[in-house]
Amino acid sequence: MSGNYRGCSTINNILLEEGAKRFGINVSDIDLLGGFSNNVYEYKGYNENFILKFYESSIYERDSIEAELEWIMYLKQAGVYVTVPIPARSGKILEVLQLDGEEECWVVAFEKAEGKFVNVSDKADWHLDMFYKWGKTLGRIHALSKSYRPNSVKEWNSGRLFTEANNVSDEINAKWNRYVREIEKLPRDRDCYGMIHHDLHHQNFFIHKKEFVLFDFGDCEYNWFVYDIAVVLYHALQTVPEDDLRAREEFAEQFMAAFLAGYQMENQIDAFWLKKLPFFLNYRQLYSYMYFSKHLTEGQKQKVHVREALKKMKIKIELDIPFLNLQFNMIR
């Protein structure tokens, strides 16, 4: 289950109007694209297209948004193809909106990415060479992370999942706490730990002239590089039927062979960390369940496909069923 839920906007109409005005456009000229919180819009003008993203303070934190923007600009300057923020009429990149007596809402405009999504059902798009380039792209990001010195650091365990109570069963919460404690014990240095994308699945980039154009860095944080790799594999595996275990294992083997071949052209990762992939795949499943349980609206949770997906995740987590029986010897 991915984080993209389209539907009615959750953003107040007055905020939408004011946000559009800050960028010199009319609210009638923007269309809802979606996003996890239905907070991403597109403006299509005669001479320019761009994306408007609204961040409500009940869900997002200003420090995280500023960290996202700083990271994007660093990658852009290093030659990575990313969609960069566009200044508002005031010249500011981050605009602050607030209605009387209500929470703050921040709005940022981003370039509209050139290119198109990968079609996972088309072998002309979804193939080993593409996986290789995907790995090469992530390896480049991790290599750049080693020399990155941001103004502030957003650590992996600083979000609300780690600092606030979670609305899950006691059994799930106990498993969550055990994973967190296990992760806290892991070594961290510049060769294994740094700023990561944290969500580089196939709906967060376009392909343009055979290049990857990356967007949606909203989940970026300091974390282990191997976890960023596990996130990619986790979501790539969701393109294979969940009940076809053999097909999933075969896909994972082929995917990782190509992906890591590309990755290690840009960044070296020790075998010690690759052996942690099964652990981080299971952690990603648990993290996703915790995240959806906390941040999905009740309306979203009642949709049949969402309810069924959460039920399946809960059962697998409670029964300690691995997300994938991944063996290290399949990774060369």
Structure in words:
42% of the residues lie in helices and 14% in strands. The strands form 3 sheets. Strands 1, 2, 3, 4, 5 and 6 form a 6-stranded antiparallel β-sheet that branches. β1 and β2 form a beta hairpin. It is globular and about 55 Å long. It starts with 12 loop residues before the first helix and ends in a 14-residue tail after the last helix. The N terminus is likely disordered.
Low-confidence stretches: 2-8
Largest sheet, in brief, is: 6 strands, antiparallel
Count the domains. 2
CATH class of the largest domain, please? Alpha Beta
Q: What is the residue-averaged pLDDT?
A: 92
What form results from the Cα inertia axes? Answer: globular
Q: Estimate the helix proportion, in percent.
A: 40-55%
- CATH homology superfamily name of the largest domain: Aminoglycoside phosphotransferase (APH), C-terminal lobe
Q: How far is it from the N-terminal to the C-terminal residue, by CA?
A: 29 Å
Say how many strands there are. 10
| CATH topology-level fold name of the largest domain | Aminoglycoside 3'-phosphotransferase, Chain: A, domain 2
Number of helices, where a helix is a run of at least 4 consecutive DSSP H or I residues:
11
Sequence of secondary-structure elements: HEEEHEEEHHHEEEEHHHHHH
The CATH architecture classification of the largest domain is: Alpha-Beta Complex
What integer value in Å does the Rg equal?
20 Å
Family: Belongs to the pseudomonas-type ThrB family.
Domain Aminoglycoside phosphotransferase: 33-259
Protein name: Phosphotransferase enzyme family protein
Pfam family, one: APH
